[in-house]
Design brief:
alpha/beta, Rossmann fold, globular, binds 1,3,4-trihydroxy-5-OXO-cyclohexanecarboxylic acid, EC 4.2.1.10, lyase, 3-dehydroquinate dehydratase activity, 3-dehydroquinate dehydratase
Amino acid sequence: MKIIIINGPNLNLLGKREPEIYGSQTFEDYYNQLKAEFPAVELAYFQSNIEGELIDKIQEVGFSYDGIILNAAAYTHTSVGIADAVKAITTPVIEVHISNTFAREEFRHHSFISPNVKGIIIGFGMKSYALALQSFL
Ligand code: DQA
């Protein structure tokens, strides 16, 4: 089973960025943990701070992979382009968020992406990614 995690802007700073919200683990460290926890999954990872690069990656993998775990970060709340890309592809997408966006500022309560995804996992810290992986299995 081929699954890719796609992370959006500022998630390259996990470990350093607002640790009271996002924790103190780097994503690279967590990703190695995930690979060890799910050895049967062919796991890939892509991160970009650039909206168009995220859209390019979604298009590239979106007709051949078995699943996409997408944390579009701030673009969740702004990007019609990413929402359209998710709608255009055939690979199922699970939207994840590390923090509980509904317990935060109101602008984080709306997601352009949610209507086009298979499911949403929000607020379980880094574990949100493991729960998404589990649901694909
Ligand atoms: C986030 C929540 C977003 O509102 C925020 O812009 C992020 C991270 C999360 O994983 O909790 O960058 O997607």
